[in-house]
Amino acid sequence: MSPKITTELLKQLRQVMKNPKYVQEPVQAYIVPSGDAHQSEYIAPCDCRRAFISGFDGSAGTAIVTEQHAAMWTDGRYFLQAAHQMDSNWTLMKMGLKDTPTQEDWLVSVLPEGSKVGVDPFIIPADQWKRMSKALRSAGHDLVPVKENLIDTIWTDCPQRPCKPLITLDLSYTGVSWRDKIVALRSKMAERKVMWFVVTALDEVAWLFNLRGFDVEYNPVFFAYAVIGMNTIRLFIDGDRMMDPAVREHLQLDSTLEPEFKIQVMPYGSILSELQAVGAGLSPKEKVWLSDKASYALTEAIPKAYRYLTPYTPICIAKAVKNTAETEGMRRAHIKDAVALCELFNWLEKEVPKGTVTEILAADKAEEFRSQQKDFVELSFATISSTGPNGAIIHYKPVPETNRTLSVNEIYLLDSGAQYKDGTTDVTRTMHFGTPSAYEKECFTYVLKGHIAVSAAIFPNGTKGHLLDSFARSALWDCGLDYLHGTGHGVGSFLNVHEGPCGISYKTFADEPLEAGMIVSDEPGYYEDGSFGIRIENVVLVIPAETKYNFKNRGSLTFEPLTLVPIQTKMIDVNLLTEKECTWVNEYHQRCREVVGAELERQGRHEALRWLLRETEPLARAQ
Amino acid sequence: MSPKITTELLKQLRQVMKNPKYVQEPVQAYIVPSGDAHQSEYIAPCDCRRAFISGFDGSAGTAIVTEQHAAMWTDGRYFLQAAHQMDSNWTLMKMGLKDTPTQEDWLVSVLPEGSKVGVDPFIIPADQWKRMSKALRSAGHDLVPVKENLIDTIWTDCPQRPCKPLITLDLSYTGVSWRDKIVALRSKMAERKVMWFVVTALDEVAWLFNLRGFDVEYNPVFFAYAVIGMNTIRLFIDGDRMMDPAVREHLQLDSTLEPEFKIQVMPYGSILSELQAVGAGLSPKEKVWLSDKASYALTEAIPKAYRYLTPYTPICIAKAVKNTAETEGMRRAHIKDAVALCELFNWLEKEVPKGTVTEILAADKAEEFRSQQKDFVELSFATISSTGPNGAIIHYKPVPETNRTLSVNEIYLLDSGAQYKDGTTDVTRTMHFGTPSAYEKECFTYVLKGHIAVSAAIFPNGTKGHLLDSFARSALWDCGLDYLHGTGHGVGSFLNVHEGPCGISYKTFADEPLEAGMIVSDEPGYYEDGSFGIRIENVVLVIPAETKYNFKNRGSLTFEPLTLVPIQTKMIDVNLLTEKECTWVNEYHQRCREVVGAELERQGRHEALRWLLRETEPLARAQ
């Protein structure tokens, strides 16, 4: 990787920072955050402005350019990559290190008195604006919104904002019509006495209207906003996508509908002016509901007294609880995904000893097998295909420079998943194609014990996921081992592979309580720097549990694994398992045999079926 | 309990709310919070203003009196008690119920436009002021500080503020001199670049100066503030306590000292004016460190730009980590406490069958045995002595109206502790003096499994206590049982039995990480409404653990029980224990035998020793 030469670009940016065509008054600093206008985790190429100006294209980072300096804040995952990708114009600010200044402190230290700091108000979330603005003001500076994005003014070959055709999902996939979702949303709005709800997150728009798109890689979403009133529905979306007869039919755009279900389609770019009009027309006590992570621009459109901000929107919460159609779809998707992985692992077992399989080839092969399955749409995230020391890099993605060949001497970790029209998958398996060492087996077995401890946990209705995080670590902790990531995240139903508001992590506290129908991942791991990485991940469904005393009718919950892919028994030190844990593994494998075996049979994949049967032989415990 | 008649008192209060002698402008509402000026958990009689005006004397509650209404907010523990103690002038606001308005909402609903709401700025913490003030302002009202406490103006027989003699603790108890504590504090201040630190919590003043007092029941503290500068020490304290030669000697008040260790003694009441003088004299960048729970009055004394507020003060954090002298003292205190409880349980075993022992008598007897031990000072909290259904009331304290007789048919729960000059104890044991039912044993055994899971837990250095909370619940959860309180709290060293900043609870997230030397309680329970209560509580010390891999040199921690009182084996269903749990119980009892047995022997308490030996026979597991 050679760094991007940014001297000329920075010169141009510094010119537009003073150009009255773009800024009311010159700005002495300009902030370029990572995100898009919807605070998405995955962003479209046209939104990769920070990567354009700096060369650094990791998933997290904020650039700030002043007249004299250019600095980049990123976290420990990206120190090396950022240092490689940026030229000497840039100073790397290593977040998390003691001596690294915050963006605010750094700005205060370098800016001349009474400076203006500019930022695109659509890209910065309102809560971040508030914090930054306060800090700057108390040092005599001003944070100012710059309407035109200054990077866009100098990005001559900026890709177009994607505007791909949509797909409609019928009731067999969604279980609930968009009309009924609007009705449910309005009843939540009535409960909180709000008159308007602004949908800003892309997956929330997609979920609400039972539509999917392809504007962003991995996430089946499309660029749009929606504003839902008690009697109106406005959808802000561009392109001729609304000309598609299937979409028109799905949204009943040409039908005679009660006015409160008539969708007004408006240009994507008109959201701000429309919202300002809503804001200007509010009567006292008419509140507008927004996520507290919505952009500063949209939040400001509503006068402060009329805003109703919450960390999780009612759509975010409703979307997390899957209905029967969705859980059945997720089950189907996971069976197909397991078929693809049985094929892959069977293939790897034969090919790896030849020394011809690289991490990239293995990832491609995984995609190939998945794409053979019905209703396959795309991958749900960039495949983590890593062997040996690469496995210890938690967010690794193989590129030609790092691409390692799989061998019978190293552990192989594959974290991958796909979008099927009926569901989203995300599964990690750790395999050895030769003979694992006693230490590797020991570590694997602790991770497995942690995985089982979460998966088999029973807990009262209303428990928050973060309370289960330590269960995943207990066996590792007993031996002085740990892993530095959370244990699980919410998973969408043919939607984003990472979604709120629930999860299993020591890092969050504000997660919403788990309830039956929610779907999360269970993925403890262990990483030995420079040697190997181990992770065992299933997607699991929250289901009611049977308990002796049922928490005085509060209700009991537990998890059901949706992922049905064998856990390599070769890696297990059976003597470290309790009888209960042994039984869990055997019952899990029995289920893989029955369910996935039947599908392999149906698809005539006999070799993969033989592999599955061999890999799911019951564990025998030493007495 | 008959309610307190408050008609006349409320009339008087409403008069002073309009009396220009006390208020600049009439206030239309007056808030009477629970606390004192130091945000203490336990308060002195002169600070029980809310109990005085309303009759309700539970530990938590806020009264608000307007021209027309008087309302009391309290939580579920106190609904019944508050309803009994208050007359019809009062409306009970049941916190936690869906339809109960917040104080702010209620005020907004009853106040005439543009009202003033008064409160004593010394009693309300700054963070609470901020919240309340904002809510009132947005509805067109004003929260105003009323300098003179209006309750005090009508409380004609208000008890004097206690001002009891102090005791000094020498190095053998504290391990560190007050001078060295000041040096350490100043180095923390230098790190954060603050010039002043204001000590507002009573236990922090006591700890800093190695002094103890008796101004508040159960907590060995005294009314005082301190302001520590980089070169000055100011102690605000009343009475002739500073005339005591032992205190003068201890604080070196009459010695020739370097000026930065010279303590300036000032009247307790002068804190505000002195702090205002400090605030007025600050140069730019000179910050003043305060707890964010300090009173609004003291916080306001420092101009906003100069405040440095943190949830935990450096003293709170330093105090939590006990040094060798303190842990050795805590060990001694717990051995003496165990001797007293062996005597008590031996006595109860003989007396209960006679039907003459009530809950109050048992509590008195426990105090009697404790008071026979060396360096006994007082109890560390009101003894919870409860049998049968009373045991299910988590914060029960026996009073004549509820006083139940212990019997061989009911479970008895005793949660009690004492202050010794060398340490603070807090222990709960649950006993049956007849034959427990299978269900009682089952529940007890789950609680015991939870207790052991926490006590034997191994975790990496830097883990926060709240991450261990679920370990205590796992066995109960498996059967659909739970308890609705946290699992543990920090314990002071001859100081408050409840202290921050660490603990083990699902309710907190902002606790400080556990480190070796911290002391917490481990007290899971189970409560069957109307039938019985079970709790098993030890005080445990955080110690380094030996692990195979030691978290890559991050270090491993675990707990050592300081409490050494037998856990009644009669209550244990051994078949529900794992082998490891059985071994834990047997090793714990072996340690009780050795350590407490030796002390019982030394004190010539042979009958209690025989009881101890019998109660600590090893468990035998059915094969």
TrEMBL record, chains A, B:
What family is reported? Belongs to the peptidase M24B family.
Q: What is the recorded name of this protein? A: Xaa-Pro aminopeptidase 1
Q: Which gene name does the record give?
A: Xpnpep1
Q: What class of enzyme is it?
A: hydrolase
Q: Which GO terms describe its molecular function?
A: metal ion binding; metalloaminopeptidase activity
Does the record bear Translocase in its keywords?
A: no
Which cofactor is essential here? Mn(2+)
Q: How does it assemble?
A: Homodimer.
Could you tell me which species this protein originates from?
A: Oenanthe oenanthe (Northern wheatear)
For this UniProt record, the keywords arranged alphabetically read as follows: Acetylation, Aminopeptidase, Cytoplasm, Hydrolase, Manganese, Metal-binding, Metalloprotease, Protease
According to its UniProt entry, one GO biological process term is:
proteolysis
